[in-house]
Design goal:
Layout (H helix, E strand, L loop, with lengths): L17 H19 L7 H21 L5 H13 L9 H7 L1 H13 L16 E4 L4 H11 L7 E3 L8 E2 L2 E4 L11 E4 L4 H12 L6 E4 H13 L2
Parallel strand pairs: 1-2, 1-5, 2-4, 5-6
Antiparallel strand pairs: 3-4
Helix pairs in contact: 1-2, 2-3, 4-8, 5-8, 6-8
């Protein structure tokens, strides 16, 4: 359940007040605990798994309301993981470079044995990496890892971009679909399926169709990039 949960079903289901979001995630955490406690024996593995989920759920509540800085949660989350033998020991520097969202994805992928994902980039042929959507929630959640990786975007596209906008030195422009070539890679950082689908359909109509990847593709790739190498 935790693994397949998406923005549309979790983050946007709760109302906008801190109290209501906290209540929502408290119930969500209780569901996780109930499922895990169904095991015949309450061993160290289950106890540690519950504590890891609890840290992430608390982080999500705080992030939604900008209550705490992400770095605090990265250190706490990494420390908790390294206190048990659920996963290989994680370098705190890598966790900080990846960001909490990528770190959490790695934990989930590792625990369920999810296969590593690769992304083909044609930079040798002059291709660009273009991140579609610069200011949305998906972009903000994955941005730290994306900018610190080998698929760092050459440019962000956003319909709300203004002249001179940039994100940590990467320019933000309004979409220029006519400039795309078959060597470009477009990463669609949108969590709402209907909007992502409409952007994809538009891209597919371009004569030189670029490589297209989505938020969760990139999340899986970054988990591999930072923690499996």
């Amino acid at each position: 359940y935790t693994y397949v949960a998406r923005e549309s079903s979790i983050m946007q289901t709760a109302s906008s007040t801190l109290r209501s979001i906290t209540i929502f995630y408290d119930k969500y955490l209780e569901i996780i605990k109930t499922i895990l406690l169904k095991y015949d024996r309450l061993d160290k593995y289950i106890i540690n798994l519950i504590s890891i989920f609890e840290i992430y759920v608390r982080y999500t509540v705080s992030l939604k309301h900008l209550v705490n800085d992400e770095s605090d949660f990265i250190d706490i989350f990494t420390k908790k993981i390294n206190e048990n033998d659920l996963l290989p020991r994680i370098d705190t520097k890598k966790s900080r470079a990846a960001g909490i969202e990528v770190l959490h994805r790695y934990v989930g992928n590792y625990l369920i044995g999810y296969p590593n994902r690769d992304i083909n980039i044609n930079r040798e042929s002059g291709g660009r990496v273009i991140a579609y959507s610069a200011f949305g929630s998906a972009s903000s959640r994955i941005r730290r890892g994306l900018l610190n990786s080998d698929i760092r975007p050459d440019v962000f596209w956003d319909i709300a971009a203004k002249s001179g906008d940039n994100i940590e030195g990467v320019p933000v422009h309004t979409p220029a679909f006519n400039s795309l070539t078959e060597n470009d890679t477009v990463i669609i950082l949108l969590l709402k399926i209907d909007i992502a689908k409409s952007v994809t359909e538009y891209l597919r109509q371009i004569p030189s169709v670029p490589n297209i990847w989505y938020y969760f593709d990139v999340l899986d790739y970054l988990a591999r990039y930072f923690f499996y190498s």
